[in-house]
Design goal:
Strand content: 15-25%
Number of helices: 11
Helix content: 40-55%
Distance between the termini: 38 Å
Number of domains: 1
Structural class: alpha/beta
CATH topology: Rossmann fold
Order of helices and strands: HHHEHEHEEHEHHEEHHHE
Number of strands: 8
């Protein structure tokens, strides 16, 4: 598995479309995660693969000292503008989740909402999250579950554009068993399953919205020829129909995720 090439492709993928149009709709999960990790004013917080800054801004609203990192400069620019608009103090910088540019034990709390789970080397990412978290600190993550709409979406995309050999599915981070493998037996993990609802005018509207704004589907549609792109969208319509709970002509899309809180052992 050529990690460097995969990362270059991922950077291009997440810069495609306009992730903020999708990411801002995940804001409730970030607010709830900050409550789950029991943030306290004054704590040092790192938001890894912060995207457009949902968790970083949620932590800053709680008067924490916050740094947000991502490897897509365009997303960091959007996060900075959001922080400025709210008058929040957050430091944003470009960095790789697999090689965080901070000393050991730098942060009281490390957060990631649907971000770090997409790094190609899962074991190295987990090691980095643990490394920069102080002894006795907490790691909070929002991860899509394997059987969620997003988990199924990536399986659908994989039938059209297979992932690189050896790359594990990102939605494995949405399994409590996989989290225990990644973080090891020394930590304490709370990982309840949660869900929320996305609301759209129709299924077709949502599919086109994702084809236009969500990087992975935007790139897939752009890469596939006209006929194959149409087939992908038809498959997305059928997938979305399975998760629709509206009972009318609109779409109420059930989004399932794992809300994980990892407690790092205190120093002996």
């Amino acid at each position: 598995m050529d990690i460097a090439t995969i990362k270059q492709r991922q950077q291009a993928t997440w810069a495609a479309g306009d992730y903020a149009a999708v990411g801002t709709r995940l804001l409730p999960t970030a607010e709830l995660l900050c409550e789950a990790v029991d943030l306290r004013a004054g704590e040092r917080v790192l938001d890894v693969a912060c995207g457009n800054g949902n968790a970083a801004l949620a932590a800053a609203r709680r008067f924490c000292h916050v740094v947000g990192v991502d490897f897509v400069p365009a997303l960091l620019d959007r996060a900075r503008r959001r922080a400025d608009a709210e008058g929040l103090e957050v430091t944003f910088q470009e960095a790789d989740a697999e090689a965080l540019p901070f000393p050991d034990d730098s942060f009281d709390v490390v957060l990631s909402t649907c971000g770090a789970m997409f790094a190609p080397d899962q074991e190295q990412t987990a090691r980095e999250l643990l490394r920069v978290c102080r002894p006795g600190g907490r790691i909070g993550m929002v991860n899509w579950t394997p059987d969620s709409w997003v988990g199924e979406l990536f399986r659908t995309l994989g039938r059209y554009l297979p992932p690189p050999p050896g790359m594990r599915p990102p939605a494995e981070w949405g399994s409590a068993d996989r989290l225990r493998e990644l973080f090891g037996p020394e930590v304490n993990i709370s990982a309840p399953r949660r869900s929320f609802r996305w609301r759209f005018p129709s299924i077709e509207h949502q599919v086109q919205f994702f084809a236009e704004f969500y990087g992975p589907t935007n790139r897939a549609v752009a890469t596939l020829g006209t006929d194959r792109a149409a087939e992908l969208k038809a498959d997305m319509v059928e997938l979305t129909r399975r998760f629709n709970t509206s009972g009318d002509d609109t779409l109420v899309l059930r989004m399932d995720y794992l809300e994980a809180v990892v407690q790092k052992p205190a120093a002996v």
